[in-house]
Design brief:
By secondary structure, the protein is an alpha/beta fold. The chain has 9 helices and 17 strands. The radius of gyration is 24 Å and the shape is globular. Bound molecules: guanosine-5'-diphosphate (GDP), magnesium ion (MG) and zinc ion.
């Protein structure tokens, strides 16, 4: 199966005439306006035809792209490579994206209006982690680097959250999801791990289960749980940011990769990251900040360069990180330990909860499926999916 259709061709797209209401201005856009350049100032070949007020049609030269979380009707715009350069979006702040050039310099970029018009959802035009082509724009101040994003590359591996029934990309183009939990304080919640594993598998991101604060417990007590996950092919790491246990392996796991770090607050995410890269200097929750529980200071994801190469991604709190798009019927397919049994159930539409002659329930009964995992499955499809 072809991943991308490389063939160039003219692709047509219908879209609304540019909105009459200008987007809310931030200081950045005001600054851009003062410098005298416009978002829609573009070197792209575009032609406006048709005369309808509501639907104008432009013919855009670009490549058709038929997969990925392609921003904008599956059209990859042609860019002028003499003026555009590749970059990586480190974070998005309203209308402005911080874009890192290959040499590490960071540009504050606006987004070309055509990209916004093509996007099916305004909020998805540019996301943290996007690979983009941008052109720099002259500013009168040598210390200020500004640019315009001209193209967003197709996305692979996005972490999303839902809000009011809509999908938001928290970060995209990442390799692995570090599911950080703690052995105690707060106590381990395996069902939460199960949810995150599904989110990772669904997104095509490799999950790694990290159990921190192992200094607070007897590690032997965690062996059965580790066994269950390892048997399914998941990586599990026992760690202690406090004693340094497992940190060398943890550092190697991060080096050269792009890792999303997630987990409840207080499990020690910041402590772990600081312990393997002192330059990160992430804020560790102090006892006095403990009372601010539930207040997340991080609201947008950001890619932070890791000293050993790659990036670590700081994400908003776990509450906002939900399963996206997983319907109950899909859940057994994401439970690696359940899925080999489902074809042996009597009813093809078996939900493996109340039905007779259910191969999954039989496997639970004779110990081939871990009971806690099965309960986690039931909880997921009965309550929390919707
Ligand atoms: N005993 C113990 N405490 C830890 C460990 N890692 C972090 N902590 C403590 O757990 C609390 C929360 O840590 P923090 O890194 O802010 O967690 P985050 O909210 O997940 O980023 C802090 O008081 C840390 O000192 C560990 O390995 N062992
Ligand atoms: Mg933290
Ligand atoms: Zn069944």
């Amino acid at each position: 199966m072809a991943k991308n259709k490389k063939g160039k061709g003219k692709v047509r797209a219908d879209f609304r005439k540019n909105r009459s209401v200008r987007p809310r201005k931030t200081n950045w856009t005001r600054q851009f306006d003062e410098h005298g350049f416009e978002e829609e100032d573009t070197q792209q070949q575009e032609r406006i035809s048709g005369k309808g007020d509501l639907t104008r049609r432009r013919t855009i030269t670009g490549e058709a792209v038929d997969d990925g979380d392609e921003p904008g009707f599956g059209i990859r715009l042609e860019v002028d490579e003499t003026t555009c350069r590749p970059g990586r979006v480190l974070s998005v702040h309203g209308l402005i994206s911080m874009v890192e050039q290959e040499d590490g310099q960071v540009y504050q970029c606006a987004t070309r209006r055509l990209l916004k018009t093509l996007a099916t959802d305004q909020r998805h035009v540019v996301a943290a982690g996007d690979r983009v082509f941008f052109r720099s724009v002259d500013t009168n101040d040598d210390n200020i680097r500004e640019g315009i994003i001209e193209r967003v590359e197709p996305r692979r591996g996005s972490v999303c959250r839902t809000s009011r029934g809509r999908q938001h990309i928290i970060v995209t183009n990442v390799d692995q999801l570090l599911i950080v939990t703690s052995a105690a304080e707060p106590r381990l919640k395996p069902n939460l791990i199960d949810r995150m594993l599904i989110a990772a598998d669904k997104s095509g991101i490799c999950p790694v289960i990290c159990i921190n604060k192992i200094d607070l417990v007897d590690p032997a007590g965690f062996q059965p749980l580790i066994g269950v996950y390892s048997q399914m092919g998941y990586q599990v790491m026992l760690l202690s940011a406090k004693t340094g246990f497992g940190l060398e392996r943890f550092r190697r796991m991060l080096a050269g990769r792009e890792s999303v770090v997630t987990g409840q607050s207080g499990v020690g995410k910041s402590s772990l990251l600081n312990a393997v890269d002192s330059s990160l200097q992430l804020r560790v929750r102090t006892v006095s900040a403990e009372s601010e529980k539930g207040r997340h200071t991080t609201t947008t994801a950001r890619l932070i360069p890791f000293s050993g190469g790659g990036y670590v991604v700081d994400t908003p709190g776990i509450r906002q990180f939900q399963l996206w798009d997983v319907i109950p019927e899909e859940v057994p397919g994401f439970f690696r330990d359940l899925r080999s049994y489902v074809s042996h159930c009597r009813y093809p539409d078996c939900t493996h909860t109340h039905e007779d002659d259910c191969a999954v329930k039989d496997a639970v009964a004779d110990g081939r499926i871990d009971e806690r995992r099965y309960e986690s499955y039931c909880q997921m499809i009965e309550g929390e999916m919707v």
